[in-house]
Design goal:
62% of the residues lie in helices and 0% in strands. It is mainly alpha-helical. Helix 3 packs antiparallel against helix 9 and helix 4 packs across helix 9.
């Protein structure tokens, strides 16, 4: 399982391939490319670690904006069909597109409570989860401190990136 690039790929081509791995944040791919590519970077887990390092090295305000780039779960963007392809696939894979009216209302309430408390959306890697698991996580995580939840959101974003890179490598087989 390898990623579809060579170490001498141009910045433009690299960003075209990996600029969407982090939601609306091509600067992460630009940062990886700018620090140089090696032969190990065709491994999706290695690339995920490199990308996570770029995120960790970014100023706090930039990391906050990265978190804010993520859509609400089963939120207005999902209902209106305004999600990125990756987010739509991930949310539908967790069954968020099949919520009952009561579940949509609950997600709406939790999105509002969470955003009001933290100033950003709940971010969770939904792979392997269903809508009930996600609501349970919402209820648990809304009790966290801002610092804990900021770090948790970034950890979840990095996990989402790893899943997306692995999926890209799988498609390249």
């Amino acid at each position: 399982m390898t990623l579809p690039h060579s170490p001498d790929i141009s910045l433009t081509d690299f960003v075209a391939l990996y600029g969407g791995i982090y939601e609306h944040s091509p600067w992460v791919a630009e940062g990886v490319h700018g620090s140089g590519l090696g032969t190990d970077d065709i491994d999706p887990d290695q690339m995920a670690a490199r990308m996570a390092q770029v995120v960790a090295g970014a100023p706090e305000a930039v990391r906050l904006e990265l978190i804010r780039m993520h859509p609400d779960l089963a939120g207005k963007a999902a209902i209106a069909g305004n999600l990125t392809v990756a987010s739509k696939t991930e949310q539908s894979g967790a069954g968020l597109d099949q919520c009952s009216p009561v579940e949509f209302r609950r997600f709406g309430e939790m999105n509002t409570v969470y955003r009001e408390k933290f100033g950003f959306p709940l971010v969770i890697a939904v792979a392997g989860l269903n809508r009930h698991d996600i609501l349970t996580a919402f209820e648990r995580r809304v009790g966290n401190s801002h610092e804990v939840e900021f770090d948790e959101a970034l950890g979840q974003i990095n996990l989402i990136a790893k899943f997306r890179l692995r999926a890209l490598a799988d498609r390249g087989r």
